[in-house]
Amino acid sequence: MLDIGFEQVLGDYQVPIGTASFTKFWTLHQARDGGWKGVLANKASLTVMGDSAPVFERVFAGGFQSIRGFQFRGVGPFNTGPQGLAAYHTGGTFAFLNTLEYQLPLVANERIGVVAFVDHGTVSNRVSLDDYRVAVGVGLRLKIPGMGPLPIALDFGFPVRQAPTDIKQVFSFYVGWIGGQ
What we know:
The protein has 181 residues and is mainly beta. The chain has one domain: Beta Barrel (Porin), CATH 2.40.160.50. It has strands at residues 2-9, 15-29, 38-49, 69-70, 78-79, 88-89, 94-105, 112-124, 133-142, 152-161, 168-169, 171-175. The chain is globular, with a radius of gyration of 18 Å.
């Protein structure tokens, strides 16, 4: 699936924002009865916005559905701040984020599954792949009948390539709809 969008923010700030995302799933293994599917997912997203974007419109990375192995909003441009003030992430005007993930059920009813993933990408203030990050990991997916289609995701991500200012977070937890699964 390919989704392309453009939005123009108006008001105190005037910022053009362009986005594109691509998602593709392949069934690599399936039981004869149609269940027990091993699925490979490829997800990619690109965001480009104007330089005048305020911090609340900028893009960040890290955490679930981004680059696991890093803290939520723990990847991106960094401001060291004036002397005596805390340093912080400022977000970027360009993001290129990708995930390659393989999910395999562990039980016949597919309520428990495992995933292996590679998350990679960058967030910058210019169109650039200079500070490219890569994380690999494994996870567990639990589908609890009383919660309907909302699975619980428990992931362990390990940064392989990172910037000195990135904030690592090995474990991430997510409850909610996980696209295509």
